[in-house]
Specification:
This protein folds into two domains: 19-111 and 269-357, Aminopeptidase, CATH 3.40.630; 113-261, Alpha-Beta Plaits. The strands form five sheets. Strands 8-10-6-11 form a four-stranded antiparallel sheet. Strands 1-2-14 form a three-stranded antiparallel sheet. Strands 4-5-12 form a three-stranded mixed sheet. By secondary structure, the protein is of the alpha+beta class. It is globular, with a radius of gyration of 23 Å. It is built from 13 helices and 14 strands. Strand 4 (96-98) and strand 5 form a beta hairpin.
Amino acid sequence: MVTADPSAWRVDPFSAEIVDGSIYGRGALDMKSEGLLQLMTMIILARERAPLSRDVIFLATADEEVKDEGSIWMIANKADLFKNAEYLLTEGGDNLLAEGKVKFVGIDVAEKAPLWLQLKATGQPGHGSRPIADSAPNRLVRAMARVLAYEPPIKLLPAVEKFFKDVAPLQPEPMRSKFANIRESLKDSDFARDLAGQREYGYLLRNTISLTMMSGGKQTNVVPNEATCDLDVRLLPGEKPEEFLAALKRVIDDPRIQIENTNTFKPPNSSSGETELFQIITSVAKTYHPEAVITTKMLSGYTESQLYRQLGIISYGWAPIYTTTEENAGVHGNNERITVKNVREGTREFYEVVSQIAR
């Protein structure tokens, strides 16, 4: 469960209150509304008695954000229920709404892999009135500073290159020309550094590191003997965690800083975009949003597609939910919301995709 601070929200974050045409609440975008679209699609299929040549399975699992215990249990104990499934649709995608129009529809064919790490420093404790230069908090802060200053190498994956080329026409010059020839453009170190530093694009180009938690002493006047911080690392498909850890140790350059992997690493994988389902999503999206560019995306986060691809299931992250940059900022942030229009019209689009692929 993702937490929410009510004092920072416009309304109670668990109220689902509708304000100015938007439903506010934790999970409104990620991903209660998408689950609602999927459930409503199942209900409509049953009510309409739609002619189907394929089974349509609604699989709801818990704990996707941390340990995937729901999906792992299902795969271990109930895989016979879905072992012959050809396709999986789940959360993901990135559909940009700007100036009242859908600019692009992103279909996730891959995700980055989480590698959660904890850095720990230990040292001599003491009274806060007598500073200890080599204390655990001081050493940890120095290590953290080096990590935050580190810029992982830029790597352009084929699906990401396609995305930049596809959305190039939507950009003003000179970005239009640079995106259209992104591989060559990234050879310009200034441009590469600027693009990689942008929240919207940086995660597509390299491994990322976010400092998320810090812990030290419990009293202001006591220098603690231990200090820790947690890093949310996301690796590009094809990256090896042991190679990243070796690079991080060189960056920290302090053998007394312990690095612990706090989650079970799941190597990232991907699905081909050359499928019937991809074509149907493209066709339906174009029907309702003829001006939109349909392209591949790589999700910055992690989804359970990684687990189901190992069963031979082609897995995509996509939902017909179209959001502005401001609305996207609410995911795991404040004032997460989704428009009522998205819920109503998105149900129709999702139903059309599922009914077409299952005929």
